[in-house]
Design brief:
Elements: E1 14-16, E2 21-24, H1 37-57, E3 67-74, E4 95-101, E5 104-110, H2 114-123, H3 127-133, E6 136-141, H4 144-147, H5 153-159, E7 162-163, E8 166-173, H6 179-191, H7 204-207, H8 217-228, H9 232-243, E9 247-252, H10 255-263, E10 267-272, E11 276-277, E12 300-305, E13 317-320, H11 332-348, E14 360-365, H12 378-391, E15 397-400, E16 403-404, H13 415-427, E17 430-434, E18 453-460, E19 466-469, E20 487-490, E21 492-494, E22 500-502, H14 504-521, H15 527-536, E23 565-574, E24 578-585, H16 588-591, E25 596-606, E26 623-635, E27 641-647, H17 657-663, E28 670-680, E29 683-695, E30 712-721, H18 729-737, E31 741-743
Parallel strand pairs: 1-23, 12-14, 12-15, 13-14, 15-17, 17-18, 18-20
Antiparallel strand pairs: 1-31, 2-24, 3-5, 3-6, 4-5, 7-8, 8-9, 8-10, 11-16, 18-19, 21-22, 23-30, 24-29, 25-28, 25-30, 26-27, 26-29
Helix pairs in contact: 1-2, 6-9, 8-12, 11-14, 12-13, 14-15
């Protein structure tokens, strides 16, 4: 039996309440220094010839209100937001950027202006135009091959699941801006019904019999509203009129109808619908160990899986939703195993280093057994979850031990991952999602959900502690600079049945109870704060594509400080166009040698909503965060204190955009810095925490300047210490901060007295 070292009571994490000091920043713009002079002349000729050819071919291309869609590819050295060609393609020239796409942008432009653009790029002497001309590599029409992404159209057709009414696909409507163009596109899309292209069967048809009086009224109303709102075509048209963007599921009967849809110019992207699956284990006996008598006081984890039939766990079931997948078709065996690990995973695996954390479960029967034909429209799946989450607001953590059998592409976020993120932000819940199992090369949807804790598998050593990579679990990284998986946990475990089973499903089930107890223990806990605490408490030194940031420690739980350390957490609302600073006194133990000596970690998570869009491919995030813990040493040329990063990343402004994305994951909403520092010279008595938010692609949201962007909520967790429990770093910093700190933990036997002698 593994030893789980625990102190009776460790120091609680502290909540830092001091407001930051903002400093305004004057942003630069395009000027003559941005012109790539060595290629300007050549690009004038090349782009003029391309626009001339486009003008000649425009009559054969799909047009809406006389407008066509182009793809403008950028040179590799021009991918940074600074070089967005918004000056060349502007509304006064009857052109407008639509969305980022691959390594460039889609442009909506009046076909009659194409010839004029050929003359414009030859002759303009405006500096901003010359910057754009020297950085746009080529222009061409957006085509059917673009719609298919990295796959071929034939491969997409063959990969789509077959139903009674044809093969099932998800399509994104082309995001045109003009009202007349949008209306013409809607009419063209609606006319495709004449080709037999239809929406799927409404959700309520599959679960109507289950909506009896036992189902909570909120859930009944939410689910019934889906049926009364109209079919998927009608919903897509309604959303498109409001937002100029919409995604919907369609059933296509024949390859000829598929080709008509692709050639219509009405869609921007198409993918085959992917079924949701679990890794189903074998049969086994139910456990006979009793559960705690006070289960009703324990946190609840919503379990979106194959349902639960184990009678021994009914005492632990807080609620049950009407099933989305009928009894007999649902993967109940997998659901039972996952539920058993969430309720009492440490009992099933007392040879592993797991904290003794029991939980209740809420049962959502939504996953079919492998090999059982049970088509579920992914958008109906999301609508169903919306209703279930609304009906159970006390359930703040949701376990998704499920995946779609398809690797997440690196250049775009999956529809399912995006939709679960929207649900999580709407209901302020934390999804915990499995990374997926082999066969495959990389994580599977919805593991690319930015709002989730994505969990991969990990082996355990002979002593029951975390060990190496799991041979079954998939790895990261995620798309659009995401650092996925976030965490890893034991994947070879015992669960209901007693046999050893393996898979990332079970790693996820072991992580959810820790998330739920953290949510319950921490004051004013938000999903991002809980996620930050879990990542901060993990054992990895840096991000690893297989292990994420590691496995949460057991010796100190996420709401506790390790011996010899102090941990602060806080939340701030940051706006673009300013740098924010918090000053922090240096604890005596870190400076007693006259140099800074110790170790630290800084974790920050930015809530990127509403500045995200599934239309922007690799530019999914339109906002990012830079943060660092800094110390002062020396002076600038102007005599001001000069600051250096004690905990922080490389200077992304000094490398190319591509390198910054690959090396530093520049546009990831998570920043996690961990470092040991020895004999570091410093000036003064304080450190400072720096944070700044950057934005891009403002045109996607109707903004014209960064100061129109709303404040972005960000959570921070900072730990400092020496690692020597004889150094009282905790009390030193707590006393120095005085009224600007309080306990972050809900615990009746903890007393923080800042006025003690």
């Amino acid at each position: 039996m593994a030893e789980t070292p625990r102190n009776p009571l460790l120091n609680p994490v502290l909540r830092f309440t001091k407001d930051p000091r903002p400093e305004g920043i004057t942003a630069g713009g395009k000027n003559a220094h941005g012109i790539k002079a060595e290629r300007l002349r050549g690009q004038r000729r090349a782009l003029a010839a391309q626009f001339t050819k486009l003008a000649e071919e425009a009559a054969q291309r799909p047009r809406f209100d006389g407008r066509v869609v182009l793809y403008a590819a950028m040179f590799e050295d021009s991918l940074a937001p600074t070089w967005t060609p918004s000056d060349l393609f502007q509304a006064t020239r009857d052109a407008r950027l639509v969305t980022p796409h691959r390594t460039g942008y889609l442009v909506e432009i009046a076909a009659k202006r194409l010839a004029a653009f050929a003359q414009l790029v030859r002759r303009t002497d405006l500096t901003k135009d010359e910057v754009d001309i020297s950085r746009v590599e080529s222009v061409r029409f957006f085509s059917g091959e673009d719609i298919a992404g990295t796959s071929s159209l034939d491969a997409i057709w063959q990969a789509a699941p077959e139903t009674e009414r044809g093969r099932a696909f998800v399509v994104w409507l082309m995001p045109l801006h003009g009202r007349d163009a949008a209306e013409q596109l809607i009419q063209a899309f609606a006319a495709l019904r004449d080709s037999g292209i239809t929406p799927p069967t409404p959700l309520l048809d599959t679960i109507a019999a289950e909506l009896d009086a036992k189902v909570p009224a909120v859930m009944r109303r939410s689910l019934r509203s889906i049926a009364t709102a109209g079919d998927r075509f009608s919903l897509a048209v309604r959303e498109y009129r409001v937002r100029r963007r919409a995604r919907t599921t369609v059933m296509i009967p024949t390859p000829a109808a598929f080709q008509r849809l692709v050639a219509s110019g009405t869609i921007f992207r198409i993918e085959p619908v992917q079924t949701i699956y679990s890794t189903s284990p074998g049969r086994g006996r139910e456990p006979d160990r009793p559960l705690p008598a006070d289960m009703a006081s324990l946190p609840i984890v919503g379990v979106v899986d194959g349902g639960m039939s184990a009678a021994s766990y009914r005492h632990a079931e807080a609620w049950r939703s009407p099933p989305l997948v009928r009894d007999g078709a649902a993967d109940t065996l997998h659901g039972n195993r996952v539920a058993s690990l969430i309720v009492q995973g440490h009992d099933w695996n007392n040879n592993l280093t797991l904290p003794p954390l029991y939980c209740q479960v809420g049962t959502v029967q939504a996953v079919a057994r492998q090999g059982v034909p049970a088509f579920v429209d992914p958008q109906d799946f999301i609508g169903y979850l919306d209703g279930v989450m609304a009906a159970n607001p006390d359930t703040r953590v949701w376990n998704f031990s499920l995946n779609q059998r398809q690797a997440c592409p690196l250049d775009s976020v999956s529809a399912l991952g995006h939709d679960i993120a929207l649900l999580a932000r709407k209901h302020r819940v934390l999804p915990v999602i499995s990374v997926g199992n082999k066969p495959g090369d990389r994580l599977q949807p919805p593991a690319d959900c930015e709002a989730a804790v994505t969990v991969g598998g990990r082996l355990h050593g002979d002593n029951g502690a975390p060990a190496g990579e799991c041979p079954i679990s998939l790895c990261g990284p995620g798309p659009s600079s995401m650092l996925k998986p976030d965490l890893s946990h034991f994947s070879h475990v015992r669960a209901l049945g007693g046999a050893v089973i393996a898979g990332s499903s079970f790693s996820t089930a072991l992580t959810s109870p820790l998330a739920a107890h953290t949510m319950q223990r921490v004051r004013q806990a938000s999903p991002d704060l809980v996620k930050a605490l879990l990542l901060h408490n993990a054992d990895g030194e840096t991000f690893d594509p297989s292990l994420g940031f590691g496995t949460p420690a057991v010796a100190s739980l996420p709401w506790e400080c390790r011996p010899g350390f102090v941990t602060l957490q806080w939340t701030a609302k940051l706006r673009p166009g300013a740098a924010f600073y918090w000053e922090l006194p240096i604890p005596h133990s870190l400076r007693q040698t006259g140099k800074l000596r110790g170790m630290g970690a800084l974790t920050a998570i930015l809530n990127p909503h509403p500045m995200v869009t599934d239309y922007a491919g690799p530019n999914y995030f339109s906002v990012r965060l830079a943060t660092a813990l800094q110390h002062s040493r020396g002076k600038t040329k102007k005599g001001a204190p000069k600051f250096h990063n004690l905990l922080g990343s490389l200077d992304t402004e000094k490398i190319t955009e591509q390198d910054a994305r690959v090396i530093d994951h520049k546009w990831s909403p998570i920043r996690h810095h961990r470092h040991d520092f020895q004999n570091v010279g410093f000036d003064g008595d304080t450190l400072r925490i720096y944070a700044r938010v950057y934005v891009r692609d403002l045109y996607l949201y109707g903004y014209t300047a960064a100061d129109e962007v709303p404040e972005m909520e960000t959570v921070f967790v900072l730990s400092l210490g020496t690692g020597d429990e004889n150094d009282d770093v905790y009390n030193e910093l707590r006393d120095q901060l005085g009224p600007f700190v309080e306990t972050a933990v809900i615990e009746s036997d903890i007393n923080i007295d800042n006025g003690r002698s």
